Amino acid sequence: MDNSILTPLISDELSLPESGISNTLQLLADGCTIPFISRYRKERTGGLDEVQIAAISEMNDRLNETARRKDTIIKTITEQGKMTGELKLRIDRCWNATELEDIYLPYKPKRRTRAQVAREQGLEPLSVIIIMQREQNPKEAARRFVNGEVKDVDTAIKGAQDIIAETVSEDEQARRRIRDIFHREAVITSKVIKTKADTDEAAKYSDYFDFSEPLRRCSSHRLLAMRRGEAEGILRVNISADDDECTEKLKRIFVKGSGYCGKLIAESVEDGYKRLLKPSIENEFASLSKEKADNEAINVFAENLRQLLLSAPLGQKRVMGIDPGFRTGCKIVCLDAQGNLLHHEAIFPHPPVSKREQAMAQITSMLEKYDIEAIAIGNGTASRETKDFVEKTLEKGSSPSQSTQQQYAQKSVSSTSNHKFASIKIFVVSEDGASVYSASKTAREEFPDKDVTVRGAVSIGRRLMDPLAELVKIDPKSIGVGQYQHDVDQTKLKKSLDHTVESCVNSVGVNLNTASSHLLTYVSGLGPTLAGNIVEYRREKGPFTSRAQLKKVPRLGPTAYEQCAGFLRIPGASNPLDNSAVHPESYKIVEQMAEDCGCSVKELIASAEKRKSIKIKHYVTDKVGLPTLNDIMQELEKPGRDPREQIEEFEFDPNVTSVDNLTEGMVLPGIVTNITNFGAFIDIGVHQDGLVHISQLTNHYVADPTQIVHLHQHVKVKVMEVDRKRNRISLTMKDV
């Protein structure tokens, strides 16, 4: 579609300047990615950010889809021989999808309706006579239409009424009037199906057994809950408006008098509304409300995913990863600073096996042998018990019983002073999705000879080191930070989450020499094939020493290089700019700055005084403006800086380990594990997350919980209510 037509439409809708939109559409058409455009083409776009560029891209796709639909409509009407100049102009000018379908509805091929049968019987002229409402005796007029198929006058009039009813249901003005009423007054109701009311499956939908609420006030989570209950055959959901008001509105449009013709039209209006128009509008609003709820849920999921992916990393440290368990034991892995698996084994410190002393010796041996700097423990079953056990092991050092020392002498366990492990920190890490990863193709390719328990423990350890690099390997829907994510439009959800992952990966940057193929896939301009080629090249030729080497990677051409180079980092490269977000196309600018300062690029980066002396306006050209130059100066200040926060340690209340320990009014530390548009879920260490409803997040009104809390935030909460029957914990953050 011609951008000159779409640009003004997008500008009006998004309130953005046409010049920036036009250039953005051209860049997208040229194959540029959203991260690349927002970071390196600010002069072209007028400084549009990723959110704005994504909105432009989305609306452009939607308008192009509408344009394709218009082509189909025009072709269909033309083939029917019903196209007129006025109708063609209306279609050309229409960009509202609902209005477009209203225009098309009278011409839309449909199954053989009652009205169609009446038309085939030659009754359309009679319907016109009745609609005109000038005939004093319509029955007399109807006699002219009685024939072999139309047996009598009543049959003729009934057929004409069927045509009128369909005409009413397809009338644009009529549909607008009914839509207006539904927008203002539609009510959504749900009722339990009686035969399912007492089943275990229905219990979770008990709030919706007899529920009614204005549709415009129905929150997305309630609507999606009802729709899920409906899909599971437990609830019956309906959206409706006042039928009497709707029919009265329609009669005002079509009924012009009080004669017999007026009576026939009034009957046709009621029939057309109840049989045709009402179901159509109800389905339309059901679809629109579901789409709105989907969009809200997808936005919540995407924001949660963004926060999770940008969680604070520990960095390149030697880590012990522990997947805790009772009966099956705790699976332990030891990883080097690059996340490579060095060792794995299982310990059984908890009942029913309870080999506590032996487990202590095993832990101590691994800590010493692999010089472990931090420990990551999964937050699933036996998490708190395992954390307590590991803490006691660190406190005890390596002083197990004599018999145990002898048993594990081959592991070089020697007596060590208590300060030996004082610097080792313990972190509890979310396990969500670890089991999905451990059974995935990616995990099998990484560890073909290891079982799923070892792979899961590796994932837990790596999540502590770099959450982003590890979590991109997992289907976002399995990470556990969504709201009804399996009930929403899956195509939209995937597109939104893929965009979120791509945005996060490129905002952080990727180490070219350590990134997995999966992580590289999300780098701007790359994909599975080029990512695999980069890893294979790295395996054959050794670590990359410069970004320019990327040009030697098979099938990585100039366009892909332009798109990806600025987001890939090479720590320790001879050119320090290769470990920064400065794009190679701007290296000459930095080199000129360094030359003008009488120093090398490395010295320029190291000297704040030299950077302050630079007058960046002197480097403005017809292609490079102040936005790019300002970005360059910020990057020279902290090359390759990580935008993520620093990781923090956390401790649950040691006296609270189960729901039975909870009492109303108790104040506890907690971690935000999930955010929805109705509140935040908090882990308080009792194996069941509590809910802080949106109304309990703070003392003032909150429209968006993400403005108050973020994932993995450490918070203080107060217990309001404990519903042990439904296993629900209500919390508040007010006045805590």
From TrEMBL:
<dbReference type="InterPro" id="IPR041692">
    <property type="entry name" value="HHH_9"/>
</dbReference>
<dbReference type="Pfam" id="PF09371">
    <property type="entry name" value="Tex_N"/>
</dbReference>
<dbReference type="InterPro" id="IPR023323">
    <property type="entry name" value="Tex-like_dom_sf"/>
</dbReference>
<feature type="domain" description="S1 motif">
    <location>
        <begin position="665"/>
        <end position="734"/>
    </location>
</feature>
<feature type="compositionally biased region" description="Polar residues">
    <location>
        <begin position="396"/>
        <end position="412"/>
    </location>
</feature>
<dbReference type="InterPro" id="IPR023319">
    <property type="entry name" value="Tex-like_HTH_dom_sf"/>
</dbReference>
<dbReference type="Pfam" id="PF17674">
    <property type="entry name" value="HHH_9"/>
</dbReference>
<dbReference type="Pfam" id="PF16921">
    <property type="entry name" value="Tex_YqgF"/>
</dbReference>
<dbReference type="InterPro" id="IPR003029">
    <property type="entry name" value="S1_domain"/>
</dbReference>
<dbReference type="InterPro" id="IPR006641">
    <property type="entry name" value="YqgF/RNaseH-like_dom"/>
</dbReference>
<dbReference type="Pfam" id="PF00575">
    <property type="entry name" value="S1"/>
</dbReference>
<dbReference type="InterPro" id="IPR050437">
    <property type="entry name" value="Ribos_protein_bS1-like"/>
</dbReference>
<dbReference type="InterPro" id="IPR012340">
    <property type="entry name" value="NA-bd_OB-fold"/>
</dbReference>
<feature type="region of interest" description="Disordered">
    <location>
        <begin position="392"/>
        <end position="412"/>
    </location>
</feature>
<dbReference type="Pfam" id="PF12836">
    <property type="entry name" value="HHH_3"/>
</dbReference>
<dbReference type="InterPro" id="IPR032639">
    <property type="entry name" value="Tex_YqgF"/>
</dbReference>
<dbReference type="InterPro" id="IPR018974">
    <property type="entry name" value="Tex-like_N"/>
</dbReference>
<dbReference type="InterPro" id="IPR012337">
    <property type="entry name" value="RNaseH-like_sf"/>
</dbReference>
<dbReference type="Pfam" id="PF22706">
    <property type="entry name" value="Tex_central_region"/>
</dbReference>
<protein>
    <submittedName>
        <fullName>RNA-binding transcriptional accessory protein</fullName>
    </submittedName>
</protein>
<dbReference type="InterPro" id="IPR010994">
    <property type="entry name" value="RuvA_2-like"/>
</dbReference>
<dbReference type="InterPro" id="IPR044146">
    <property type="entry name" value="S1_Tex"/>
</dbReference>
<dbReference type="InterPro" id="IPR037027">
    <property type="entry name" value="YqgF/RNaseH-like_dom_sf"/>
</dbReference>
<dbReference type="InterPro" id="IPR055179">
    <property type="entry name" value="Tex-like_central_region"/>
</dbReference>
